[in-house]
Amino acid sequence: MAVGGNAEGGVAIETGASQASFDFLHVVDWKKAEEVIAAGSFEERNGIRVIPLETAAAEGVLFLVREPKSPHGVDVDPTGDYVVVGGKLDPNVTIYDTEDIRTAMAEGNVEGEDPFGVPILDYDSILAGQVEVGLGPLHTQFDGKGHGFTSLFLDSAVAKFTLGEKAGVKADEAFKLVDKVDVHYNIGHLAASEGDTVAADGKWLVALNKWSQDRFPVLGTLKPQNFQLIDLEAEKMRVLYDMPVGFGEPHYVQMIRTDRLKSAIEVYEPGTDPLTMAPSEVATEAGAGRIDTSTPGEVHVYMTAMRSQFTPDTIRVKQGDRVVFHVTNIETEPDATHGFAVPGYNVQASLDPGEVVTVEITADKPGSYAFYCTEFCSALHLEMQGWLLVEPSIATTT
Predict the structure, then answer these.
(1) Structure pTM?
(2) Contact 352, 336 (CB under 8 A)
């Protein structure tokens, strides 16, 4: 499912695009789409198979669902039974039953068509409930315990509400506002721990606020955004911690348990190509650094980086040579990152422990060019350097 356009059909500017009470959610039957493609009822555009709109409507691939005006977030709860829509200009979150949507699509239970002939599913037959949560509802996360948590941009708050019986909620408690907590300020996205999965754990939520205003010392005109950690296990939601974030606009993120990272690699095996996670054919072992000039016009440098030296550290080439540096960080300590830079040729690379990188230049400028480590690596970091010596061609010297 995906958020559709505004009901007025505006595509260029917002003016006049939010007058109607409802916009449309686009619902796609992927199985039916597969059948249509298999039957050859598609057009190929730029190498991509596309089902024309009129075909999608006629074959039951695409349906529309009315939703609150100026919709923003469309989120599915962990059970897969409910779709929650936040309409920026409506104080409610609107909750649809996915099984009822499937039934309405299969039975052709529609209330009309849009101007392009796309059928609009009967609203009352698929609506599970609505909850008035506050001003400016945007995105929703879940705790796996029958609750949704929606960001309220205008209220600068997070609202907690119940889902329906299919999410384990008693009938008399379904679709009700449970709690609200103020955040600072103008929350957009939010992230609950495992909240976008079928195994939401319901412990923590982070509010990704676009403004911080009076929360942090003034250090200039550019203010940080503000992440706030919220405890979901307490009887009432409460903000535990503020964290300023000084880059970009906080947007869509995921929060997962750290124990899911047990298979994460801390250090590459020495000589690993991180793109393939396999031993690199150009990896160099300790003490095996060398310069290969066997191919005319080409120089391959098989180099190691180790606190605090490049080996080899003096490379002589001729003007016009293609020079390829194959650099292996042979460190095994997790923090021992090295850099390799030849500023005179505007190249730089960062090498994690065990990683192999390849850097290529054309030695078109004669002279002596320093290369050095750009990651502070040891007390002798400043000694970790070498020279690329480019001998001028005969034409240059004459």
Answers:
(1) 0.77
(2) no
